[in-house]
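Protein in question passed on here:
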Amino acid sequence: MSGSYKDYSSFPGWNDFENQKKKSKEEAAQKAETLQKAEEIGAGNKKSPSRKSNSDKSAGRKKGTSARDKLKPKKGASKKPTAEKGKSKKASLKRPSETIHADRSKHRVPPKRAVRRRRKKGAKLAKAVIARSIFFILIAAIISAALISVANDAFALTKTDTTEVMVTIPEGASTRDIAKILKDNDLIKYKWAYVFYAKMTKEDGNQKYGDFLFSYDMTYDNIMTTLKKGSFSETNPNDVRLMIPEGYEGNQIIDLLVENGLGTKEAFEEVVNSRSFGYSFIEDIPEDRSYFRMEGYLFPDTYIFSKTEGEASIIKRMIKNFDSKITIEMYDRMKELGLTLDQTITLASMIEREAGNIDDMPLISSVFHNRLNSDYKYLESDATIQYVFDERKDVISYEDTDLDDPYNTYKYAGLPPGPIASPGLAAIKAALYPADTNYYYFVARGDGTSIFSETYAQHQKNVAVASRTWNR
């Protein structure tokens, strides 16, 4: 029966079993040979008891169960198909490495999805670590930058602007109030740092009140020392308190500065015609401006100038003051109206020169805006003609309105080429926020007020009424 027995040669101890079997056969054969020789010598054909005994042993061995018989399958056992036998044999003869892997079935190699998940988790962890590191670095950088900025504000590490500015400290002002005034004048950047420094140096409450002259390159110590010494009139005879009136023309301002011993006319004119001090609105002034280049930008205010600071410093302080008055909201409003800064100041200067009081400014502004937004764009402002004359006239004649000059708004439509004076803050706001009216005409009375009208016929009647007040 082919395939009834399995090949057990690879079983452990099988070779020892075969050798023992072979040895037993050899011993049996040797005994048989010895018995045969004894029989030949002995009783002839009579069988030897020992041989019979041996035969009995052999027969008994045959009847017994050998080691090989134990390994044979029992009768009646179901026989598996050949393919299953081969598989069973192959499985039973596994190599050691296969057995080890089988024993480690609980520790199988993770699938690719699990590997990708672990890698993704590791990448997220790495990104989180990097993000936190960057965050802490940024925080450290911000703190360092803030400390440097505060140190520069307190100790003037990089302050180089020597321009001087006069500041008024009211009576009874606290250190906190003084810090706000100093910040409003761009002398310090951090109010809290100034108050803290004053307390740390025991200067809190030691400042005096009055008018003080500071420069933009001062340290906290310099400012506090100046405030302790007293106002400018008490400490420096070279300081001059000067009020620039609203509506003054550029040449009038220069003459006023010269009269107070603050410089020469030639030096001031050179600065006005050649310097911009880094302000874009000065750089944008047209080069062909006929009269005073910085007209409208020398802000009218009360200043304390020093006779030793120089013409350039004085002009720069006035321009800086102008720049501080024009807010972001004002620039946004200009954009809404379709006006540039130069056009806004031009319109404001006309309002400043035409109005006799602040209350009339929004009304006069409405007249100019209504005309600019209509088909009749001639503003017909007497103040623009006066600007052209070397000497001012009390009344503009009809012949004057025929003057051929771009500043003659009777002859040229729209705004004049540039400002005609230095407008104050009220006039600038009026130019940006005119009253909501239908007025197209106005005429001034002798008392500085104006009469407004919507039609030319009404205007003619108002002129007759106003003229009776001019010579009073």
In short: Residues 112-155 form the longest helix (44 residues). Residues 1-5, 45-64, 76-94 have pLDDT under 50 and may be disordered. The chain has four domains: 9-53, 115-230, 237-323, 326-472. The CA atoms of residues 296 and 422 lie 4 Å apart.
